[in-house]
Specification:
The protein is of the alpha+beta class and 388 residues long. The mean pLDDT is 94. The protein has a 4-stranded mixed beta sheet with strand order 1-4-5-8. A 4-stranded antiparallel beta sheet has the order 2-3-7-6, with no helix packed on it. Strand 2 (140-144) and strand 3 (147-154) form a beta hairpin. Helix 1 (7-23) packs parallel to helix 4, helix 4 runs parallel beside helix 8 and helix 10 runs antiparallel to helix 11 (352-363). The chain has 3 domains: 7-84, Acyl-CoA dehydrogenase/oxidase, N-terminal domain (Butyryl-Coa Dehydrogenase, subunit A, domain 1, Orthogonal Bundle); 122-227, Butyryl-CoA Dehydrogenase, subunit A, domain 2 (Beta Barrel); 241-382, Butyryl-CoA Dehydrogenase, subunit A, domain 3. It contains 12 helices and 8 strands. The protein binds flavin-adenine dinucleotide.
C-alpha cells in the first residue's frame, strides 16, 4: 500500500508553504497568542483570494474542485503553522450545511460571502446543561407572526464576539421526543437581544457565553425543516468529528528536539543522549505517524467515495489523546524549561511545549469528548448497543 499523497499533492504543498511563508507574520502570530482569537481577517481574505477557503467545492460554487488528498495537504500545512483558522472552519462547516439543505435564497445570501472570507459564522450548539447530549437543548424558539422569538443561553460560542451569524440549535417543540423537537436557525449577531460574554479557557483561547433575550428572527433564517434540526445538525457534526491533531504533535516534537539539542544534563552530557528522553521522543514520533495515517485514511476514503463510519472519530480520539499524553511526558522530562511561555523570547521552541500542555486539554473536549468518540466507535464499529 502506498501512503504517499502523490506528486500533484506534493506540488500543491510547495505552493501552500510559499503562501504561508508570506502571510504568517510574527505580528499575526503574536496577536493570536495574546488575544486567544484564532481568526485574522486579512489572512482569511488572502486565503480566499487564492480560492483556498473551500478548495474542494466545485468551481461554479466558488471552489477549485480539488480532491480530498490536496485538501489534506492544505489542512496539514495550515495546522503545522498554527494558522488562525478556527473562524474559517466554523464558517465553512455551516456553508456546507447550507449547500446541502439551505433554500436558494439562503445560499445566494450566505455562500458567496462565506467563500470570499467576508463573514464569520459561529456555532451555537452547546448549553450549560447540553454539551455532549445536544438533544437536551433548552433554548426556545416560539413562532411569532412570520418569524420566531428566541430565548435562551449558549455556552462556548467561540468567536461570537467577531461573528456575523450564529448557527443556533433551538427547541421548537416540547410535545415530541427530544430529538424531534429541534430546529436550526442562522441568527444575525447584530440582532437586538443577542448578548456576548467572554470566557477564557486554560489555554488562553477566547470563547463566550451567549444570551438570547426575545431575539426576533424571520422564518427566512430557519435552516432546514421545522423540528428537523437534528438531521441538519448531523451534517455539521460529521465534519467536526473528523478533526485531527497530528500537526500539533509535529510542532510539539520539533520543540522538544530543539530543546534537547541545545541542553546539557546535570552531568554535562547532551540531553539528546538521555535514554528516557529518547524513548519519549521515539514514542511521540510513532504517535505522530499513527495520527497522520489515521487522518490520511479519512482523506483516502473520502477520495474513493467510501462511507465513513468510525474513521473520523478514531483519528480525532487518537491524535488528541496522544497530544495530551506526550505533552505531559515531555514537560516532566524538560522540567521548568517546559513551563517557559511564548512571551519569553528564550523559551524552547517559542514556548510550544508550555502552550501545548494547556491547549491539549481542550482538544479532548471540543468537537466531541473522548468518551463520546469511544462510544461512537463502539457503536458503529463494534455494533454494540446505544448507551441511551
Ligand atoms: C475551547 C472550547 C471551544 C468550544 N467551542 C464551541 C463552539 O464554538 N460552539 C459550541 O456549540 N460548543 C463549543 N464547545 C463545547 C463543546 O462541544 C462541549 O464542551 C463538549 O461537547 C462537551 O460538552 P460539555 O462541556 O457540556 O460536557 P458534558 O457533556 O457535560 O460532559 C461532561 C463529562 O461527561 C462525559 N460524558 C457525557 N456524556 C457521556 C456519555 N453518554 N457517555 C460517557 N461519557 C459521557 C463527557 O465525556 C465529559 O467527560 C467548545 C468547548 C471548548 C472546551
Amino acid at each position: 500500500m502506498d501512503f504517499r499523497l502523490g506528486p500533484d499533492s506534493e506540488e500543491f504543498r510547495a505552493e501552500v508553504r510559499a503562501f504561508l511563508d508570506e502571510h504568517i507574520t510574527p505580528e499575526m502570530t503574536e496577536r493570536v497568542y495574546r488575544t486567544g482569537v484564532s481568526h485574522d481577517e486579512a489572512f482569511t481574505r488572502a486565503l480566499a483570494e487564492r480560492g483556498w477557503l473551500a478548495p474542494g467545492w466545485p468551481v461554479e460554487l466558488g471552489g477549485q474542485g480539488r480532491d480530498p488528498l490536496e485538501m489534506q495537504v492544505l489542512a496539514d500545512e495550515l495546522r503545522v503553522r498554527d494558522a488562525p483558522t478556527y473562524g474559517i472552519g466554523t464558517t465553512l462547516m455551516v456553508a456546507t450545511v447550507l449547500r446541502a439543505v439551505g433554500t436558494p435564497a439562503q445560499q445566494a445570501e450566505i455562500l458567496p460571502r462565506a467563500l470570499s472570507g467576508q463573514i464569520v459564522i459561529v456555532l451555537g450548539f452547546s448549553e450549560p446543561e447540553a454539551g455532549s447530549d445536544l438533544a437536551s437543548a433548552a433554548t426556545r424558539a416560539v413562532p411569532d407572526g412570520d418569524g420566531w422569538v428566541i430565548n435562551g443561553q449558549k455556552m462556548f460560542t467561540t468567536n461570537a464576539q467577531i461573528g456575523d451569524y450564529v448557527f443556533l440549535l433551538a427547541r421548537t417543540n416540547t410535545e415530541v421526543p427530544r430529538h424531534r423537537g429541534l430546529t436550526m436557525f442562522l441568527v444575525p449577531m447584530d440582532q437586538e437581544g443577542v448578548e456576548v460574554q467572554p470566557v477564557f479557557t486554560l489555554s488562553g483561547e477566547r470563547t463566550n457565553i451567549t444570551f438570547y433575550n426575545d431575539v426576533r428572527v424571520s422564518d427566512a433564517w430557519r435552516i432546514g425543516e421545522v423540528d428537523g434540526g437534528w438531521q441538519t445538525l448531523t451534517v455539521s457534526l460529521a465534519a467536526e468529528h473528523g478533526s485531527a491533531f497530528g500537526s500539533a504533535i509535529e510542532r510539539l516534537l520539533a520543540a522538544a528536539e530543539d530543546w534537547a539539542a541545545g541542553t546539557l544534563d546535570d552531568g554535562g552530557r547532551p540531553m539528546l543522549e538521555d535514554l528516557s528522553l529518547r524513548e519519549t521522543l521515539g514514542r511521540t514520533m510513532a504517535d505522530l505517524e499513527v495520527s497522520r495515517l489515521l487522518q490520511r485514511r479519512v482523506a483516502w476514503m473520502a477520495e474513493a467515495g467510501l462511507p465513513l463510519t468510525t474513521e473520523g472519530p478514531m483519528s480525532k480520539l487518537f491524535s488528541s489523546e496522544a497530544l495530551q499524553d506526550r505533552a505531559q511526558d515531555l514537560a516532566e522530562l524538560m522540567g521548568p524549561d517546559a513551563l517557559r511561555s511564548y512571551l519569553d523570547p528564550t523559551a524552547p521552541g517559542h514556548g510550544e511545549v508550555e502552550h501545548t500542555l494547556r491547549h491539549s486539554l481542550g482538544t479532548t473536549i471540543y468537537a466531541g469528548t473522548s468518551e463520546i468518540h469511544r462510544n461512537m466507535i463502539a457503536q458503529r464499529g463494534l455494533g454494540l448497543p446505544r448507551t441511551r
